[in-house]
Structure formats: C-alpha cells, structure tokens
Specification:
The complex is a heterodimer of chains A (226) and B (450). By secondary structure, chain A is an alpha/beta fold. Chain A folds into two domains: 123 residues, 3-Layer(aba) Sandwich (Rossmann fold), CATH 3.40.50; 94 residues, Arc Repressor Mutant, subunit A, CATH 1.10.10.10. In chain A, the strands form four sheets. Chain A has a five-stranded parallel β-sheet, sandwiched between helices. A four-stranded antiparallel β-sheet of chain A has the order 8-9-10-11, covered by helices on one side. Chain A has a two-stranded antiparallel sheet with strand order 4-5. In chain A, strand 12 and strand 13 form a beta hairpin. The two termini of chain A are 25 Å apart. With 450 residues, chain B is of the alpha+beta class. Helix content of chain B is 52%, strand content 17%. Chain B is built from eight helices and twelve strands. In chain B, the strands form three sheets. Chain B has a five-stranded antiparallel β-sheet with strand order 2-1-5-4-3. Chain B has a five-stranded mixed β-sheet with strand order 7-9-10-12-11. In chain B, strand 3 and strand 4 form a beta hairpin. Classes of the chains: A alpha/beta (226), B alpha+beta (450). At the A-B interface, helix 1 of A face helix 3 and helix 4 of B.
C-alpha cells in the first residue's frame, strides 16, 4: 500500500515509517498538518494514497480538523488515527470526524499492519484475508505466497509488486504507478528496479503469470484469462 | 458536633412573630390595669348607691324612736353580691343582709371607703353615717368577686387580640417565605447544577440586593470554567508529551525485532538508544519541575553569585549549538551580584537561550542590566517569533508552539517556575530588528554590596 504518515514526533515518525516499510508499504512521512494538507488534500482525488496514518496532536493544528477538511472535500482515503489521546470521547470524536480506525499510542507495529490490511480488505470489498488468483494464493497477513501448494520465498519488494497487481485484478499498472506504490517519495530509484522485480517474480511464479502490455505496463495474466 | 447554620428565613419569622406577641402582651397588661381601675370606680359607685338605697329604706321604716329603730329590710335583687350591716348608735349590728359577716365590716367611727377582713373574707366597704350619727350603714363587696369580675371582663376584651396576633404570625410566616423565595430558589438553582456545568446562573429574577451575589457567583463560575479548560488542555498535552517518547521507544524496539538485516537492526537499535536518552531528559525535566513545585527557595539565604559569570557559562555551553546553526551569539551582561540559586537559575537561562538559538535566523542576544524595577535580563532572537495565541500559552506545561520534536513543551514552564521562586517575573517582549522574539526576565534587585 502507499501510505501517508502524519506524525510530528521525529523519533516515533521514523520508527513507524521503518516499521511500515518492513511490511512492504511505501510510506510518505509529513510532520505538520500543513504538509499533510499539501500532500493529501490539496491534490484532491489525484492523491494516490491507499490510507493515511494520522496523529492528532499536530503542532500547527489538530489532526481532526485536517480529517474533517478532507471529508468535506469528498476525499475518501481511509484514515487510521494513531494518537496518544485515549479518552473515549476523543475516540468517538475521531471516528465521527471520518476516521476508519483509531489506535492509541503506544502502537504495536504488527497490530497497525493488521488494521491496515483490514482497511484494505474493506476498501476493495474482499472478505477473506487471502487473495487467490488462479493457482497463486497470497496471504498479506502472513506475507506468504503459495503456488499450487508450494510456498514461495519472495522479498518485501517483490511481494509489494505482486500485491499491487493482484489488488486490482485485470488492471494494467504502469511503471510509474508501480514505483509510486512501492517507493513513495524516495528519490534515486534505479530506472530498471521495477523490471528487476518483475523478472524475479516471473522466475519464482512462472513466466506466464505476469503479462507485459507493451508500452503500458503489466497485469496478472492468470486473471486476464478468466 | 456540627452546628447547623442559622436560617435567615426562620430567624425573620421568629423575630417578627415574637415582636407581635410581645406587643400583644404589653397591650394586654395595659388593658388589664385600665380595666381594673375603671371597674373599681364603677364598683365603688355601686357601693355608694347601695348604701344610699339602704339608708332610704331605713329612714322610711325605722325612724319611729329616738334611740332604737325597728327595720324590716327589703330584698334588693341588684345588690345580692353586696352585703350590708346596719349599726345603731352604740355600734351594735342591729341588722345584716343574708351572707353578711357577723363581724363589723368597718372600724368604729370609720366613714367612706375602707377595706377590712371580716370573718376571714376581705371586703371593700362603704360606710354611710346617718341620722346624726345614730346609725351607720356598711355596704361591702368581696374583693375576690371584684377581681373575678375584672378578670372576666378583661379576658373577653383580650380574646380578639389573640386571634389578631395569630393571624399576624401567620401573615409574617407567609410574607417572609414569599420574600425569601428568590434566595431559596437561587441557592437551589446552584445546588441542582451538574458538577461539570459551569455556565452562568440566571440572575435576572434576583432582587436588587442579591444581584451582586449572583454576579459574583457567575464570575466565580467563569473563572472555574477557564481553570477547568486549562486543566483539561494541560492533561491532554501531558498525556501526549509523555506517551509519545515511550511509544517511539516501543516502535523502534519492534522495528529492531522485525529487522531481517543486520544494518537495519543496528540502525533501529541506534534510534532506540537516542530515544532512551530523550525519554531520560524528559523525565529529568519533569522531576526538576516537581522538585521546584514542592520546594520554595529561602531567598534571604541564597548564595551571592555573579550574573556575569553565570551567563558566561551558559553562553559557553551553547556555543557549539549556535555555531552549528551558523548563528551569532552575543552576550552583554554587566557585572551584577545577586542572591540566586546556583542550580536552577542557570538552567532557566540556558532554556531561554536554547529556545532562542533554535528559532533564530542569524543572531541571538543575551543582555542584563540593573534598572529601577530590578535586574532585567533579556534574550532576543531574529527568528519567526510567536503569535499572540502562542505567547499566551507558551509558559504552560507541555505546550509546544511549533514543530519542535526535541522538547516536550516544558522548557519555558520550568523557566517561569524558577523565576517565580526567585521572586521575579518573566514575559515576552520585542525581538531583534523588529522581528523575532524577546524574553524578558525581571528579578528583584537583590544585589548585595560586599
């Protein structure tokens, strides 16, 4: 998933970013409501985030206000509030302002990952946690991929590419879309990085699973066949 | 034992009703005396009349002889309460009415009114001497009869008074309750409020005399509300500032735990150590504040220190930080001796300078001089400054004005506490070159001449 992390505390922000990246997410991290506004709300529907992890106590304004602004602009990006405010009234206010989930600090990274997976399932309307495409089964919770009963060993990036493709079955994703989904704002990505991941995936999954749409990008062949 | 507070309402009712009873009692005594006197005169007149009537009868019937006379008395219905005796020249009782005593009703030779006990009964007596002293007539009335008659009369006169007094007491009770009703309902309105409700009480219905009370209550409620909001903000801020470093520690530890590569793990562990250091600093600051809160400084017994050398040490300690940001750190402190706590005052100065260094664009200036209002220490920078809203809360604990992840919003709170303990004051002033922020500390002029 491509995530926007809004957290003003430098240490906690760094830790959350590192933890989310360990789960294979692409994370953009901003520290103020202003920056979050620029990265998320100001660009409107064009914002490519799959979810926003939002702290409430921001130095230049409340995260709640930011969330309300986003919902007023009809921006439906799922929002998970991660805050130190633990009163029930705060939780209710957060959820009523438009949040999809609410976590109180300290935050367990595994729980955060699970809640993000749940949000993802809800967004694409899936019931089971595992994604099954042809003879490939992907379980985002355990980060395991099985092909015809055989477990496969994928790196975090490879899994991220596969998940990005599997999430929107039959849809062709361009190189830029995949880069954005994998790397966020990180610069200096080698131009053939995506090609390398695709190459490795084909070797592990079988050559016919990922189909190249010349000049457009890639999609899962197994789905296209159905 | 707890004494019940006195009641305005009950006291008014008791005092007013009591006053009515006393007035009634006094008027009753007066009435009784007047009635007694008037009745006494009436009774006396009746005695005279009766004596004359008896004389008339005696003169008519018994004046045949010179010395002795025979007398057949008539029964007079209207004098049945009166008794009389008829005496001859020698003072012998020749006749007495039924119920009259055997003893003479008056002393020999008496005339007119007298009082006498005859046969053990006290009488009021009128004596009429007639026929050239040949005969005397005593007409008597029992004193107890007279008193009983007066009592009956007076009691009948007093009865309407009792009714009036009772009605009056009832009226007092009713009026006092009615008049004090606003007081009662006002106190009930305050009493019935929810504990968290600090909105104003309605004072429009209160009488003029209670308006100031109502306004005072509302003023108090308003101040409570402000304090409450401030307290809530403080609690929320403190929760955020204390939990966040711990949350960061936990997250970093988990990142290290989940790391698959050694470099990733050691990076996370490095960050974890940094986090522990930061949490330690936070705890130290909170403890320092707690110590400062608990204690007070005995200002008279503080050591005499040189402000110049103290400021010099602070500036030297911050030199590296200023150079790292490419700032010019200027100090202009004259030689001032003052009584100060050599532990806490340097910390306060360092916090103020540290803030300035973190926000300045190019320059930070620390100055101190002795002025009429005391020792004035100013620290000014040319940074972005603070809005009025930020300034109003900047000395609050756990308040962070800007994105400043290094602090927990305790720095200026600590400064304020230290300066207050020294009997001084701290406020914001103008920064450098028409921008930035200045912090002005005024300490009482405790300068001592060695």
């Amino acid at each position: 998933m491509r995530l926007l992390l809004v957290e003003d505390d430098s240490m906690l922000g760094a830790a959350l970013k590192a933890g989310l990246q360990q789960d294979g997410h692409a994370v953009d991290w901003v520290r103020t409501a202003d920056e979050a506004d620029t990265a998320w709300i100001a660009v409107g529907k064009a914002a490519a985030y799959d979810a926003v992890v939002l702290d409430l106590g921001l130095p230049d304004g409340s995260g709640i206000d930011l969330l309300r602004r986003a919902r007023q602009r009809r921006i439906a990006t799922p929002v998970l509030i991660a805050t130190a405010r633990d009163r029930v009234a705060d939780r209710i206010a957060g959820l009523d302002a438009g949040a999809d989930d609410y976590m109180v600090k300290p935050i367990d990274l595994d729980e955060l990952a699970a809640r993000l997976r749940a949000i993802e399932r809800r967004v694409i309307g899936r019931v089971e946690s595992a994604i099954v495409i042809g003879e490939i089964a992907i379980d985002p919770a355990t980060r395991s991929v099985v092909r015809a009963g055989q477990p496969l060993d994928l790196t975090a990036r490879e899994l991220a590419v596969l998940l990005a493709l599997a999430k929107r079955p039959g849809v062709t994703l361009s190189r830029d879309q995949l880069i954005e989904a994998l790397y966020g704002w990180e610069g200096s990505i080698e131009s053939n990085a995506i090609d390398v991941h695709i190459h490795h995936l084909r070797r592990k999954l079988g050559a016919d699973v990922i189909e190249t749409q010349r000049g457009l990008g890639w999609r899962l062949a197994a789905v296209a066949d159905r | 034992m707890k004494r019940r507070p006195w009641s305005l309402r009950n006291r008014l009712i008791v005092l007013l009703a009591g006053l009515a009873f006393i007035a009634w009692g006094a008027s009753s005594v007066w009435l009784y005396r007047t009635a007694e006197k008037q009745a006494g005169e009436l009774f006396d007149a009746a005695l005279i009349e009766a004596a004359n009537a008896v004389f008339a009868a005696v003169a008519h019937e018994g004046l045949g002889k010179d010395d002795d006379f025979e007398f057949e008395p008539e029964e007079h219905a209207h004098v049945e309460r009166l008794v009389y005796q008829l005496l001859d020249r020698r003072g012998r009782i020749v006749y007495f009415s039924p119920g009259a005593p055997r003893e003479a009703l008056a002393a020999a030779g008496a005339r007119g009114f007298s009082e006498r006990v005859a046969d053990g009964v006290a009488y009021r007596v009128y004596t009429l001497r007639a026929l050239n002293e040949r005969a005397a007539i005593h007409v008597g009335q029992r004193l107890s009869d007279r008193a009983a008659l007066v009592r009956t009369m007076v009691l009948q006169l007093l009865l309407p008074g009792v009714v009036v007094v009772l009605l009056l007491a009832l009226g007092v009770w009713f009026i006092v309750r009615r008049v004090t009703l606003p007081v009662i309902s006002f106190s009930q309105a305050i009493d019935a409020r929810a504990p968290a409700d600090s909105g104003p009480v309605v004072v429009d219905n209160l009488p003029q005399e209670l308006q100031p009370v109502g306004r005072a209550v509302n003023g108090l409620l308003e101040r409570v509300e402000i304090a409450l909001v401030r307290e809530k903000t403080l609690t929320a801020d403190a929760a955020h500032e204390l939990r966040t470093p711990l949350a960061a520690l936990r997250a970093q530890a988990q990142v290290a735990l989940r790391a698959r590569e050694d470099t990733e793990r050691s990076e996370a562990l490095q960050a974890l150590i940094g986090g522990v250091d930061r949490a330690t600093r936070l705890v130290e600051t909170v403890l320092t504040l707690a110590r400062l809160d608990a204690g007070s400084i005995d200002r008279a017994n503080l050591p005499v220190v040189s402000l110049r050398s103290m400021a010099g040490e602070v500036v030297a300690g911050l030199g590296a930080a200023a150079r790292a940001r490419g700032l010019q750190l200027e100090m202009n402190v004259s030689e001032i001796a003052l009584r100060a706590d050599s532990d806490s005052l340097p910390v306060a100065l360092r916090n103020v300078c540290d803030n300035a260094i973190r926000h300045a664009t190019s320059r930070v200036q620390l100055e101190a001089c002795v002025a009429a209002r005391g020792i004035v220490i100013t620290v000014r920078d040319d940074g972005p400054g603070m809005t009025a809203e930020q300034q109003s809360r900047a000395f609050d604990r756990f308040y962070r004005g800007t994105s400043d992840s290094a602090g927990a919003g305790l720095g200026l709170a600590l400064v304020k506490r230290v300066i207050e303990l020294h009997g001084g004051s701290v406020r914001f002033s103008a920064g450098l070159n028409g921008r930035g922020l200045g912090v002005e500390i005024v300490l009482p002029d405790a300068a001592v001449n060695p």
